[in-house]
Amino acid sequence: MAALLSPFMTIAANRIVAGESVMAWHVASPAETLPGVAAVVLGLLFGIPSGRQDLRLCGALLGLCGILWLLMQGAPALLDSAAGDYARVSPAMGFWCLLLILTLMMADALTQMAPGPIARAGLLAAVLCSLALILWSGALAPLSILQEYAGRRAQFADAVLRHLALAFGSLATAAVIGFPLGIVCYRRAQLRGSVLPVLSLLQTIPSLAMFGLMIPILGWVGDNMPGAQAIGIAGIGFAPAFLALVLYSLLPVVGNTVAGLASAPAAARDAARGMGMTPTQRLLRIELPLGLPVILTGLRIVLVQNIGLAVIAGLIGGGGLGTFVFQGLNQTATDLILLGALPTVALALTSAIVMDILVELAQPIPKDSP
Amino acid sequence: MNVGLILRPLLVLLLLALVLRPEWFTPIFAPLAPPGAPTIYARSSLLSLSLSHLGLVAAATFAATIVAVSLAIFVTRPAGAAFKPLSRTIANMGQTFPPVAVLALAVPALGFGSGPTLVALFLYGLLPIFENSVTALTTLPPATMDAARGIGLNRWQRLLRVELPLAFPVMLTGIRLSVVIALGTATIGSTVAARTLGEVIIAGLLTNNTAFVLQGGLIVGLFAVLIYDALIQLETFLARRTGA
């Protein structure tokens, strides 16, 4: 309730100065705001009592539609009312709080309803499609964050691609190195005892320090190894960021590969040995399939972690969405920070959900079967 | 093990020297600094930056531990059981938020300086501690709980004398995770004008002075590794003492 009573949007004369707060029912003419406010109130009323989960889900969705409606009505109306070409409209505390409450309500209802993996995938696709549709339709275009975007369309696409290349590229590289290393570690307890502690120490090093330490190392390699500069290895830019991310990814990949392979029940392993399978056959046909969920969980950790860490690449010239975050911080331009941070959060959440679905699909025996 | 015995004091000495007597390292760092630029960071003392860095982390972790453990105790009692699924959802979703994003989003809400960094460290630190505490409190051996009930301990006595001591090692793992994340996030905190060791690295990046970057990176990295190692040692010691 308090969230509803705090300012919903702000309007400012330009992108730097602090804005003036506007309450939810004042963002546009009463006739336009009423349906939105009503939907939010109804949504909260349905959603807060935790009796029936389907009702809560509907309430959350209704409320989300309500705040979106208010945003779409409010943005152009406020912009028209303001003087000056540089006026900026942005969502304020009230909007963010309501968004958080309603999303949590939805997530909670969904957790308790526990839909199957296919249903969850469908739901995720529906949410992403509607989000894309709303952004593409231009109904929110007057909002300041989208104005920042409009000024940097090409840069933004570039940054997103760079970000994905950093996150997924380092994941793939770490997998290529990590799987064999994990399998070897699983076979040799002695090696495991020395490799895993070293990898966990690597993971402990703060990200900025790790990225920083890569600079002199790769700078030296770039200067002293013939051909290294030709393939883009240099002290700053993509290479040090990429290498730092790979190093961070090794622990979850190797650790979970070892744990996954070890998770095959002893009975299954004995049976395989009894059938006369060679160690390689046992690995490929028993231990890997049974350990797949744990191994995939490791990849999930890496992916979510790398999407977040790739932001720091922005500081060492590695590109990615972090460029906007740190530019925004330097210019105290909130919208620019959000333009970098919100897509990062969305990417991390989406990949976490997708990986969770994959982990569940990889489960050899459904959990609820007797 | 033996490697640790030799390496640990050496690394501690190296860290102390880097923080207290940075000028000793001038010959090593000199080739990395651009011509004419200073080799050793002198804009503010490394000791005061270190203390401010560790202070931020300690304050945030301390507050996060108290709040997270109280919340975990609350949701594992009958009175708070209704909030358990919701709180787990929040903890799960929250941990997919990148720490940098939490920091960046704290700035529009709270402005620049140590304040938003502290809040971001606190909020982010809550999650691992909460998750581990709930896990620890819900997976206590049932036989022990029955025995505690059987000898006539009331709820408070059970909590203080049986549940918390048994759950402590797992909680400590959560605290360790949260300290490691906080050390890293505090480093990035200097981009929002918090006084931390990240300042040295950022100054190096901005002026193309690799000597600064290396110096800051080494100090922060050594602090993180040594603190992590100390907490692990504490955990093994406690686990051995409780006989687990």
Compile the SSE list and pairings.
The complex is a heterodimer of chains A (370) and B (244).
Chain A: H1 2-5, E1 9-12, E2 20-22, H2 30-47, H3 53-81, E3 88-91, H4 93-113, H5 117-137, H6 144-151, H7 153-187, H8 189-204, H9 207-224, H10 238-262, H11 266-274, H12 279-309, H13 322-330, H14 334-362
Antiparallel strand pairs in A: 1-2, 1-3
Helix pairs in contact in A: 2-3, 3-4, 5-14, 6-14, 7-8, 7-10, 7-12, 8-10, 9-10, 10-12, 11-12, 12-14, 13-14
Chain B: H1 2-20, H2 26-29, H3 46-75, H4 84-96, H5 99-110, H6 114-138, H7 142-150, H8 155-188, H9 198-206, H10 210-242
Helix pairs in contact in B: 1-10, 3-6, 3-8, 4-6, 5-6, 6-8, 8-10, 9-10
Level-1 CATH class name of chain B:
Mainly Alpha
Give helix and strand order of chain B, one letter per element, not per position. Answer: HHHHHHHHHH
The greatest inter-chain interface is formed by: A-B, 47 and 45 residues
Per DSSP, what share of the residues of chain B sits in E-state strands of 2 or more residues?
under 5%
Helix proportion of chain A: over 70%
3D shape of chain A: flat
How would you write the strand order of the largest sheet of chain A?
A: 2-1-3
